[in-house]
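Quick board copy: two proteins, each given as sequence then tokens.
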Amino acid sequence: MAEVPPSPGFSTTIEALRLREWLIGPGEPMLVIDQFYADDFNLVVDDRADVHVNSKDGRFYLGWFPSGRPGTDREGWKIAVTGTAKARGYRISFDTETPADVVAAAVTRALETSRQV
């Protein structure tokens, strides 16, 4: 008996189609901020109560804007890593309502990929 080739597209089960519960709401921002230490990072809280964290070498930046970053459409978090002469850097933005757990996971991964040279 010949094996039936898989059909194109997604296949699923009734169980997979059941509703899921998703984490929503901004959560606890200290899950993100607590990942940084004074030995390697500078932290500044400005007059709007926005929090800015940057690496001592100036190549990593995290901004938390609880009321939204000025001039944006509710940007609540900004992560930026400056590139080098050989490779471009990157920027990631999250909405003010993005759960801090999700932002913390992105920050954790960004920090894990860094190394001292």
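And the next:
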Amino acid sequence: MDQSTSAKASDRVPGADASREEVRAWNAAILEEYRTGGGRVGGVLTGMDLLLLTTSGARSGEPRTTPITCFRDGDRYLVVASNYGKPRHPDWYHNAVATPEVAVEVGGERFAARATVLDGAERDRAFDAVVARYPFYARYQAGVTRTIPVIALTRLSPDPSDAG
């Protein structure tokens, strides 16, 4: 990902051939742009709804924060584990499966959520809705043999013992 000093990370998205290190560097730059821009990111991501997903590393247990395109589905958010059309699932997906309790930051709000991988007809309905909004996800799916997962992020109710 050769970028000049004047280019912003959001000017382009990593391709399927991007290395893990390039994707991590891109994510870090988008994270910074998201936070300094009050939840907005420019470039090719202009107008896309993004959230910050913090998972626990499946092996390390360390927090890992990833900016991800999101979709509202009632009271929950949907995220797609496309990994930019790569043949393997992204690291954040493996982390969320290993430890489904995650943190979500969106619209200036941060909350705990449970990550649930959708399957069957529910996954297909959700993926079709995502593709209707952003057709590039269909290209990602067509380019890989794996079924690209859709994950629902459902807000966890506050612990009643925290009140008061």
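Board note added afterward: Confidence is low (pLDDT under 50) at residues 1-6, 160-164.
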